Amino acid sequence: MSVHKSEIRKVTTHQLQEMKNRKEKISMLTAYDYSMAKILDTAGVDVLLVGDSASNVIAGHETTLPITLDQMIYHASSVIRAVSRALVVVDLPFGSYQGNSSEALRSAIRIMKESGAHSVKIEGGIEIRESILRILSAGVPVMGHLGLTPQSIYKFGTYTVRAREEAEAKKLIEDARLLEDCGCFAIVLEKIPAELAKTVAEELTIPVIGIGAGPFVDGQVLVTHDMLGITKEFKPRFLRRYAELDNIITNAVEEYIKDVKSVDFPGQEEYY
What we know:
The chain has helices at about 15-20, 35-45, 55, 70-80, 100-115, 130-135, 155, 165-180, 195-205, 225, 245-260; strands at about 25-30, 45-50, 85-90, 120-125, 140-145, 185-190, 210, 220. It is an alpha/beta fold.
């Protein structure tokens, strides 16, 4: 039976909190365009992240740093037009918030006004406290991001697991508490030890969503292109491929080329 669009219950930050309270896991995937976002939303994913990972999987850059605020707004606008249910979170890109809380506020407001997104995500802890507070003061929901923060890759120099050492683990816990105290509605923990992620998830009252952070958090997020096997080069331990679309698409294109060359396509039933 079809469901009228107005009857679909949209996911909100409040509902994510309710999900944590009743120990229901949160599903989150990335989306950058209308067509894929519509598929993911219809499938029932709870949160769609318009990630700065578009810099990698859409634009082909080595890091997330090159993508601009204008480009993030373009991707977010495309996703928003497809969504009926999921909560849409948009990454603030590198250079749009670090070191200047006024610039952070302007960037967040542009994303919300120009794309229609529901919230923003921002990387870092105490170093960006003022930016987070300024954004929140405007009524914009903020999701935090700790652990491996890809926008700081040249500072780290590696994509290895973060917070294995006691000092870094202690700081991560302190930063997570700070983000909650500031008013973030959720936090992403990327590529940290599972037991540390468990500690954070148990200490915080807000949802904690992991990527490479083990099973003890409140939800999981993956890059859709990685999870579906569209991208092949990226093979971290935490990635589970649920499909091999690279092979399926390649085979389909090869069949199309063969049919065009042999004049099998279009057939009589496929032209006017």
